[in-house]
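pinging the channel bc i need a second pair of eyes. not urgent but kinda urgent?? the chain im working w is below, pasted from the shared doc
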Amino acid sequence: MPPSLIFLKWLVIVLMVTMIGGVITIVGLLVTRMPDGSSVGVPEAVVLPEGERAAAVTVAVGMLLVVTESQRLLVFDRMGTLIREVDLAE
């Protein structure tokens, strides 16, 4: 085999090993950094109504939106006061 092909062969092998290492690293980071989905963190200032658990939390300008497991949207201000409640199950 000519020397240029041997060099090209080794470059392809190094590229393959690098790509496999990159994919393993990305999958590992996704697995270790993603929440397990059991609960969503709600800031300490926000107190949810009795029996409600947060399914999703979104921070917007001047407000905090919490979607509960019972399909209700709760809108809180930055201080944690409930401003509005919307039933999403309709």
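so The longest helix spans residues 3-33. and The radius of gyration is 24 Å. — does that match what u expected or am i reading it wrong
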